[in-house]
Structure formats: structure tokens, C-alpha cells
Design goal:
Layout: H1 2-15, E1 23-24, E2 28-35, E3 38-44, E4 53-55, E5 57-59, E6 64-65, E7 77-80, E8 92-99, E9 102-109, E10 112-118, E11 139-146, E12 152-159, E13 163-171, E14 176-177, E15 183-184, E16 204-212, E17 215-222, E18 231-237, E19 245-246, H2 255-258, E20 264-270, E21 276-282, E22 293-304, E23 309-314, E24 323-324
Parallel strand pairs: 6-24
Antiparallel strand pairs: 1-24, 2-3, 3-5, 4-7, 8-9, 9-10, 11-12, 12-13, 13-14, 13-15, 16-17, 17-18, 18-19, 20-21, 21-22, 22-23
Organism: Dyadobacter soli
Signal peptide: 1-19
Family: Belongs to the glycosyl hydrolase 43 family.
Length: 331
């Protein structure tokens, strides 16, 4: 009975669902992993309701999402506070990737970046040795990128009277960065990165990195997340460390494009239809920030032969509002 009550509480408080109707999903700092014909969604849950950690939802079409059947006994959780994991609060910004038959999750807790692993996509994700990636100072919003030469890089945010993106080579076996390689990606330089609607220090965060035709593309969010102009842009470089050239078309996701405030901090992924998408969060309403709502938008990738780079934009009139219901099941 306690398990049933706890599971019902989780669904109502975190996903805000009912058996009678579909409801929106309230994950922030979101990511989507694609495998075996299904999409898997996780992110920051926000608040203190329900278990601390990360919950999973699955879908076949990006529109309707449910808790995977195999996770119902674990309340939908794939990583839980205290279960061989680092962190007591502030479980934010997860990323899931697979390498050499093992699934990894990098995330933020206690304002530290963390790496956990599992032999199953559905977890549980745990640590062999409990601890952060780099405890020398606070760092958040981790993203691990594997280059075509087999080297790994950690992109994350460090604090210096603001939030700045950094890159460092990452030792997967040790689960640590190589400190001598740590380098700031860039500074706040563009008007869209600092609008007056919410006063804050410089903020650039939520990195995603991809490589196409020997060019590196770093997608990031700028402005404070409480700013209605929280938005997403990208920069291009010839190496994982830069120097980075910011796109003249930035921002590519912003309230003027997708029609909702606070659009930012997500992840880029390729859909089952081979279409690129970006999953992100928005503010709860025009006058309220949280709990933040989840959104997905198709991305347009075009080759610019003259510049020798890809350009990115989104179909702002085709935003997907992912929904969940307690009654629907996947086959």
C-alpha cells in the first residue's frame, strides 16, 4: 500500500497527471535519449516533492509519455539520492550516454558535477566510489562529449561572479578531468546574452556539443533562468577547446521564436524520423517561473558552403508540448 501511495504521489506532484486526462510534463534542464524505437526523457524535477534524484518517462512519438513498466516498482526513478550516489540536494541537469556497453549519467548535485553508471538504460545509476568529478570548486551543468579520436571532454559551468562554460579533457576510467587542460570557452559578448528583464551576473550554461565535418558545435543557454529572455544559441570551433565563433543568427530558441518565456537549457537529439530536435524548458506562465514546463522543437540544419559550416534554426511554429497520462500504456 505504501508503494502504491508513494507512486501516486510522485505522479501527481512531479508529473502532474491524472488517469482521466493528459497533463503537461514539468521537467527542467531536460534531456532525451533515443534507443530501440523509443524516446526516454529525464530532467530536473524541481521542488522537494517525491524522491530526490531523476525519474524516467518513455514515448514512441514525443507527444505522449509514461513511466516505463519496468520502473513502476522503483517509482519511476533511475537515480536516487543515497543509493550509492553522490548528492544531498539540487539534483539538476542530467545527461545520459552509452559507451562500450555501459550507460552513464552525468548530473549536478550539491553544485558539483557527478558521474554514475549502469548496465541498463533504465538504471539504477550508481557510483562505484561515491564522490564528484572535480571537488576542487563548484561546477554544474555537465556534458560529456566523445570525439572521433576516442578522447572524452567534459563541458561544465564554473562560477566567477557569473556562470561561465569550461572545457577539459576527461579521463573516463578515472572519472576525473585533466586539470591542466581546463579552459574557459568564451565570455559574455552579445546583447541577447544579457537583457535587462532580470538583473544578474553573466550567465552561460546548459552545454551540448556535437561534431560535424570536423567542426565542433557548442549549444548553450544565456541569461538567468528567471529572465523571460532566457534563450539558446550556439558557437562553432575547429577544436573541442575553441576558439569559438558565435553564430550571427543567435539566439535560435527564444520567446520571440517559440512564443513562450524562459525557453532554454535542454539538449539536442536526433529523432526516430532522422529529424533533429531540441528539448528544453519554459517558464510556468507569463508571470511565474516554476515549476517549469517541458517543450520540444524541430531543428533545421543547413550547410553553408561558403562559410564551410552548418547553420541551425528551429521551426518555432511546430513546438511539441509533451504530455503524460497515468492510464496509457506502451505495448
Amino acid at each position: 500500500m505504501k508503494t502504491i501511495l508513494a507512486y501516486t504521489f510522485l505522479l501527481l506532484s512531479v508529473l502532474q497527471v491524472s488517469a482521466q486526462e493528459k497533463r503537461e510534463i514539468f521537467f527542467a534542464d531536460v534531456t532525451i535519449y533515443v534507443e530501440a524505437g523509443k524516446y526516454y526523457l529525464t530532467g530536473s524535477k524541481g521542488g522537494n516533492d517525491g524522491p530526490q534524484g531523476f525519474a524516467f518517462l518513455e514515448s514512441r512519438d514525443l507527444k505522449t509519455w509514461i513511466v516505463p513498466a519496468k520502473l513502476k516498482d522503483s517509482l519511476g526513478m533511475i537515480l536516487t539520492k543515497g543509493d550509492h550516489t553522490f548528492g544531498t540536494k539540487g539534483f539538476w541537469a542530467p545527461q545520459i550516454f552509452r559507451d562500450k556497453g555501459t550507460y552513464y549519467m552525468t548530473y549536478t548535485a550539491d553544485e558539483q558535477t557527478v558521474l554514475a553508471e549502469s548496465k541498463s538504460l533504465l538504471g539504477p545509476y550508481r557510483q562505484k566510489e561515491i564522490g564528484p568529478i572535480d571537488g576542487s570548486e563548484k561546477n554544474i551543468d555537465s556534458y560529456i562529449f566523445k570525439d572521433t579520436d576516442g578522447k572524452y571532454y567534459l563541458y561544465c559551468v564554473r562560477f566567477d561572479k557569473g556562470n561561465y562554460l569550461y572545457a577539459a579533457e576527461f579521463d573516463m576510467q578515472a572519472g576525473k578531468i585533466k586539470p591542466e587542460t581546463l579552459k574557459r570557452c568564451f565570455n559574455q559578448t552579445e546583447p541577447w546574452e544579457s537583457t535587462p528583464n532580470f538583473k544578474s551576473g553573466p550567465i552561460m550554461e546548459g552545454p551540448t556539443v556535437i561534431k560535424l565535418k570536423n567542426k565542433y558545435y557548442l549549444f548553450y543557454s544565456a541569461n538567468h533562468f528567471q529572465n523571460i529572455d532566457y534563450a539558446i544559441g550556439y558557437a562553432v570551433a575547429d577544436s573541442p577547446y575553441g576558439p569559438w565563433v558565435k553564430s550571427k543568427n543567435n539566439p535560435i530558441i527564444q520567446r520571440s521564436i517559440v512564443g513562450e518565456n524562459g525557453s532554454g537549457h535542454g539538449d539536442l537529439f536526433e529523432g526516430l524520423d532522422k529529424q533533429l530536435y531540441y528539448v528544453y524548458h519554459i517558464h510556468n506562465s507569463p508571470d511565474k517561473v516554476g515549476p517549469r514546463r517541458t517543450r520540444i522543437v524541430p531543428v533545421v540544419k543547413q550547410w553553408n558552403a561558403q562559410a564551410g559550416v552548418y547553420t541551425f534554426s528551429v521551426k518555432g511554429n511546430e513546438v511539441i508540448v509533451p504530455m503524460t497520462t497515468a492510464s496509457q500504456k506502451l505495448d
